[in-house]
Automatic annotation (TrEMBL):
Pfam family membership, one: PPR
UniProt organism field: Vigna unguiculata (Cowpea)
Domain of life of the organism encoding this protein: Eukaryota
Protein name: Cell division protease FtsH
PPR repeats: 118-148, 149-183, 346-380, 419-453
Length: 543
């Protein structure tokens, strides 16, 4: 089957590594100066290849990909009889390092030695490219596979889900059915995740029916079904799935049900489910994420009380969720109190607190906290999300110079490549400051460095042009935005407002006509409030 090839610039959101440049430096220094200490000797290079493969795999399992890579490099210099099993372990090491360049080198050596022809080897390549964000390469390797088993198909399915492409993931599922591939529990779980992302209720029901007809293990798939029905707002169906499981239920099922009920404001059922099993930190964390999404302070406080009673307040992950919930509900002082009380602050703790200050208009405090975080470099390092929070805080508070310094640090100090979101925030900062030439200079530099403009970039450029009355380049941004997202009403309204600001009423009328023709409606603004005495409910106020 010829798979979809039109994602040449689509990249998955990537995990941040501490000083990727430092990792490269460590590897290079070790290879050239032989100063890296590992627990293997020269004898490991001359022993049976299966024993050496086992040693490389052990390093990977222990989370030490650098040692695995150095052993592999030494092995290749000492002997030529490496096999596919050698390469598959090294590919997992490249995945842990999140360095596609190393993975590409390994791929080239596999082609050279003929070790890339087997299904297992190619599946490992698909997995590596997928996890390193190289979607096109993953699809290309899959297309080259002569024999594809269910594991290979699942790797491709995970690839599209990881890159937030649920439509393509559903397409893979349909292709598997056409190819008469027997669907595994993993396949069906992935299919349900795709349906949840698409809010495709009927399609999800069909997958549920397939699960029943195939006689699959409901204990394994029940959590995925509960997550799916909760995500599309069908809590009653989620409860039916939960209640249909007679006998043993694990914590994961309870956690999924509690989280789903909280997300849908079904608090009676949520607390009833929590009463059936001893509360755990994971369940409370999941529930708190739902409270944050709903901006539900009352429910969040109830979860906080449960956490205090059960003694979970020393759990860093749970405290991070509490901090984020209070911040999004506007209770910055409570968030700060929680932050100060966290014994082992991780990067999420710092980032949540920086974001809390920024989203509540306290940009100066966000910058100061970021500076304090940088002093703790031996314990924790900022990641790309941290920088995004700082840039956003600078933009909301008009801190232009601080924003410039932050954007410079991102690459020069920490070796991180700016994502489109970073560029959009930086463009917004410069646009608000009236530096329209700087705005377009950043855009051109971004394109030269190979980053494809997203809708967020064009929105930032359009807003900057509108603020600075840059009509000609603003029209360019408007044109590209509508080409990229022709059916999104909010973007059409934004472009319409730009043309209204410059007096082009003919274009305004034309855009309104397009919206009517396509049946698009401007999304109404709203605010959530908790009605006293009726905390389970909220009302929306159209603005």
């Amino acid at each position: 089957m010829k798979m979809i090839q039109n994602h040449s610039h689509k990249m998955c959101s990537t995990l941040n590594l501490r000083h990727v440049s430092n990792i490269i430096e460590i590897i290079n220094h070790s290879l050239h100066h032989q100063t890296f200490t590992t627990n293997f000797s020269s004898s490991s290079l001359t022993q049976d290849i299966s024993q050496t493969n086992s040693l490389i795999a052990t390093h990977v399992r222990r989370g030490d990909p650098v040692s695995a890579w150095i052993l592999f490099h030494s092995l290749r210099r000492a002997r030529a009889d490496v096999d596919a099993y050698t390469f598959t372990s090294v590919l997992r090491a490249c995945t842990l390092l999140h360095m596609s360049k190393l993975g590409t080198q390994v791929h080239a050596q596999m082609v050279k030695t003929g070790a890339d022809s087997g299904t297992v080897a190619k599946t490992s390549l698909v997995d590596m490219y997928s996890k390193c964000g190289s979607l096109d390469e993953a699809v290309k390797v899959f297309d080259e596979m002569g024999q594809r088993d269910v594991i290979a198909w699942n790797a491709l399915l995970s690839c599209f889900l990881r890159c937030d492409l649920p439509v393509e993931a559903v397409g893979v599922l349909r292709a598997m059915r056409r190819a008469n591939v027997e669907l595994s529990e993993f396949t069906l779980c992935s299919a349900l995740k795709s349906c949840a992302s698409l809010k495709a209720l009927e399609l999800g029901r069909q997958v549920h029916g397939l699960v029943v007809c195939m006689g699959r293990d409901m204990v394994v798939l029940s959590t995925a079904l509960i997550d799916f029905y909760s995500s599309v707002g069908c809590v009653d169906d989620a409860l039916k799935v939960f209640c249909s499981l007679k006998g043993w239920k694990d914590d994961m099922m309870y956690n999924s049900l509690v989280s789903g009920c909280v997300r849908n404001r079904r608090y009676v059922e949520a607390f009833r489910a929590m009463g059936l099993v001893r509360p755990n930190a994971v369940a409370l964390t999941s529930a708190l994420v739902g409270c944050s999404e709903n901006l539900d302070l009352w429910a969040g406080k109830q979860m906080h009380c449960v956490a205090v009673r059960q003694g979970f307040t020393r759990e860093t992950q749970l405290c991070n969720a509490l901090l984020d919930m209070y911040a999004k509900c506007g209770k910055v002082s409570l968030a700060q109190s929680l932050f100060d009380g966290i014994c082992e602050k991780d990067v999420i703790s710092w980032t949540c607190m920086i974001d809390a200050y920024g989203r509540n208009g306290r940009g100066r405090e966000a910058v100061l906290l970021f500076q304090e975080m940088r002093k703790e470099e031996r314990k924790v390092l900022p990641n790309s999300v941290t920088f995004l929070s700082v840039l956003s805080a600078c933009g909301h508070s008009g801190l232009v110079e601080e924003g410039k310094k932050c954007f410079k640090l991102l690459r020069e100090k920490y070796g991180l490549e700016p994502d489109p979101e970073h560029y959009a925030c930086y463009i917004d900062i410069l646009g608000r400051a009236g530096n329209i030439e700087g705005v377009w200079s950043v855009y051109h530099n971004m394109v030269e460095e190979g980053t494809k403009p997203t809708a967020g970039i064009w929105v930032a450029l359009l807003n900057a042009s509108s603020l600075n009355q840059d009509v000609e380049r603003g029209e360019l941004a408007a044109k590209h935005l509508l080409q990229l997202e022709p059916n999104k009403s909010s973007y059409i309204v934004l472009v319409s407002n730009f043309y209204a600001a410059i007096g082009r009423w003919d274009r305004v009328d034309e855009l309104r006509s397009i919206m009517r023709t396509k049946g698009l409606v401007k999304e109404a603004g709203n605010s959530w409030i908790n009605v006293l005495g009726l905390n389970q409910h909220a009302r929306t106020l159209s603005v």
